[in-house]
Amino acid sequence: MKMKLHRKIFMIALLIFFYAPILYIIIFSFNDSRSLTNLSGFSLQWYEKMFHDDTMMGSVFYTILIAVLATVISTIIGTITAIGLSKSRRLIRNLVEQVNELPIMNPEIVTAIGLLMFFSALHMKKGFLTLLAAHIMFCIPYVILSINPKLRSLNPNLADAAMDLGATPWQAMIKVIVPQIMPGIISGALIAFTMSFDDFIISYFVTGNGVSNISITVYTMSKRVNPSINALSTLIIIILTVVLLLANIIPALIDKKNKTQKNKEMYE
Amino acid sequence: MILVPMLLIVLYAFTRKGNDVTTFLFTLENFKKFFSDTIFLEVLWRSLRVAIETTIVCILIGYPAAYFISKSQEEVKMRWVLLITIPTWINMLVRTYAWIGILQDDGIINSILGVFGISPLTMLHTDFAVVLGMVYNFIPFMILQIYTSLTKMDHSLIEAASDLGANKFESFLRVTLPLSLPGIISGITLVFLPAVSSFFIPKLLGGGQYVLIGTVIESQFLTSGDWNFGSAISLIMALIIMVSMYLTRKVDRGEQSETGVL
Q: Which of A194, B73, B108, B217 is 20 to 30 A off residue B241, Cα-Cα?
């Protein structure tokens, strides 16, 4: 069925609504003047300013470092927890799964102040460590949630079979269970990375001591007109688009390759 | 192998203990302060109003969008879903920041209006700007939720409805709409929840004077340092959210059992 004209117009208007602000930022990052409203000419001065701005570059560095560390750590912890849960009693599993959903269902600001008070109760100084710990904590539930469905569809006898064949529990987990749930782990890690990379509210509450990520920098700098933010935003947009396109294209390519191979095998 | 995750779970439980410790600490003073002060009640009312407006706009725009996508061809579908998902991957703050320039008094919208001889409108720092910012940030979730429930639907049901003499409008109203209700409900959850608690959208687009419950909580914690009062407010907010979620779910279930009877 072809899209009717009025539908097309509606959808195109929606797309303009979605993408105009993003284009707007990209265009104005090349603007000659400070103005956010008048284009006066092409220049790269805001990019130059951005690369010479220590706070901005520092926040880019921290954002990437924290996102990578939080993704790796939360994926490992989340995977182990999910596997452990699938082996524990129903009551405990249900309880933990309920607890696990709390930070997802709760408004982010509530999680943020909870963590803030938690860190201060432990007398942890706000800074890099609290930021990293907070990111790990809010990423874990998403990892568990994306692994759980895969675990549920797994044959529960697989691990037992592996152990009957002489594998230690650890070997059974690494060699049998983990490869089976790999797609869930990967999508969990991807969600964790984007959540951490984009987080503002929780980071804003738990950080301190000059450590800030891109979102916090944009927020504090947006109080004054500062076109370097446009340059920084454009940079983030480009990085994220490339990463996500790769993440979407690569599995599709692998899929295609597998399919053609399978087809070949079938013909042979 | 079971012990490790168990220890982690204990650690997990501890992270949420942060909340519990304060609930033990505060007296009813803080709640009294909130409910006796009309300013805070006004703020609460405004937050709820903005969130409800945002949710309604998201449904009104999001439903037709999801419906049109679900009606298009298979390949086109995936492309549309991707096009709607991509903006959500880009930092919310960055996308909200873009609207500051667009909505300004001498911004691009007013320039376009000027061409048609319409005098500039003040848009930044108004309710309109805040709702717009929220709709812009949260509508993809609504569209995707409704879209998923529409694609899961059994299309033979619509054929059956038209076979039984329903016209297009009737079959939409009596078959498609009720069946996509779970999608609308979870869409509402995903829009209403962040809209009530959001604090940077009102701060950026509403200006410093524009106070919502999220901004109150933020200032209690980071500026005036009254953590007890701040936690009391967030507890009230969490409670309101939970009650409204419970109510929407109940409506959902009620509808489902009704269709079950049919």
A: A194
**For residue A155, which of A79, A86, A75 has the smallest C-alpha distance?**
A86
For residue A102, what are the domain limits?
A: 55-226
Q: Which of B68, B76, B221 sits opposite A116 (nearest CB)?
A: B221
Flag whether A103 is in a domain: yes
Query: What CATH number does residue A158 fall under?
Result: 1.10.3720.10
Q: Does B214 touch chain A (CB under 8 A)?
A: yes
| In-domain check, residue A174 | yes
Nearest to B235 by CA among B202, B203, B197: B197
Q: B87 to chain A nearest CA, in Å? A: 7
What pLDDT, in 10s, does the model give residues A137-165?
888 888 888 888 888 887 778 778 888 88
Q: Establish if A157 touches chain B: CB-CB under 8 angstroms.
A: no
Q: Which of A10, A25, A173 sits opposite B64 (nearest CB)?
A: A10
CB contact under 8 A, B71 and A83: no
Q: Where are the beta strands (DSSP E) in chain B?
A: none
Chain B residues whose CB is inside 8 A of the A11 CB are 65, 68-69, 80
The DSSP output letter for B175 is I
Q: What is the ipTM of this complex?
A: 0.75
Residue A37: list chain B partners with CB under 8 A: 101, 104, 106-108, 111
User: Mind listing the domains of chain B with CATH numbers?
Assistant: 28-261 (1.10.3720.10)
Q: Which amino acid is at B142?
A: M
- pLDDT per residue over A185-233, tens digit each? 888 888 888 888 888 888 988 887 778 888 888 888 877 767 788 888 8
The C-alpha atoms of residue A210 and residue B93 are separated, in whole angstroms, by 20
Q: Are B213 and B240 in contact (CB under 8 A)?
A: no
Burial B45-67 (b: 16+ CB within 10 A, else e): ebbbebbbbbbebbbebbbbbbb
Query: Domain total for chain A?
Result: 1
